[in-house]
């Protein structure tokens, strides 16, 4: 088991296909763990507590926040979202797996301060029109909410330069493969390979 946990931050404007990408990545890689965020928003569609999110009250979230239990937290569209400091990282380390986080720009910025070695990926839609089409196709939001999300996206996309990688999600299959390639490339970095390389070097000293 590795003594290090690789942390992969995935961010994108709402409707860019980020959740689908992450789901597909995890489905094909059992050596990755998804960090389940806490949120004060209500579940959507078939979402279940403890699967997509931990759904908590605003009061409970603020209590946890004041207690310093989050690695990062942000308020987005009048709801809190946060990554718990202990559970996900501890589980990933215990199982020798890497951690994937689906968080927004604000949270990513905080997390990079807390975990400087974390690898960040920003997912972009091909255009504003494509993003609007995807939001409408979900049939989850009112027109007013869709316009608000588009305004938010216009601000979010300006932050792409703070990320290590940028992935334009034109095709879900191609984008999933590219995301998997990023994970593999980062795992092969020299500083992450030291533990595996050292026994090989030692064998040459015999």
Structure description:
The chain is α/β, with parallel strands linked by helices and 206 residues long. It has a single domain (7-203), classed as Rossmann fold, CATH 3.40.50. 45% of the residues lie in helices and 20% in strands. It has helices at 18-27, 58-66, 87-95, 105-114, 128-138, 143-156, 172-187, 190-203; strands at residues 7-11, 32-34, 37-39, 53-55, 70-76, 79-84, 98-102, 119-124, 165-168. The strands form two sheets. A five-stranded parallel beta sheet has the order 2-7-1-8-9, with helices on both faces. It has a four-stranded mixed beta sheet with strand order 4-3-6-5. It is globular and about 70 Å long. The mean pLDDT is 90.
The overall number of domains is 1
Distance between the termini: 25 Å
CATH superfamily: P-loop containing nucleotide triphosphate hydrolases
Beta-strand proportion: 15-25%
CATH fold-level topology: Rossmann fold
Question: What are the key terms here?
Answer:
alpha/beta, Rossmann fold, five-stranded parallel sheet, 206 residues
Q: What does the secondary structure layout of this molecule look like, with pairings?
A:
Layout: E1 7-11, H1 18-27, E2 32-34, E3 37-39, E4 53-55, H2 58-66, E5 70-76, E6 79-84, H3 87-95, E7 98-102, H4 105-114, E8 119-124, H5 128-138, H6 143-156, E9 165-168, H7 172-187, H8 190-203
Parallel strand pairs: 1-7, 1-8, 2-7, 3-4, 8-9
Antiparallel strand pairs: 3-6, 5-6
Helix pairs in contact: 1-7, 5-6
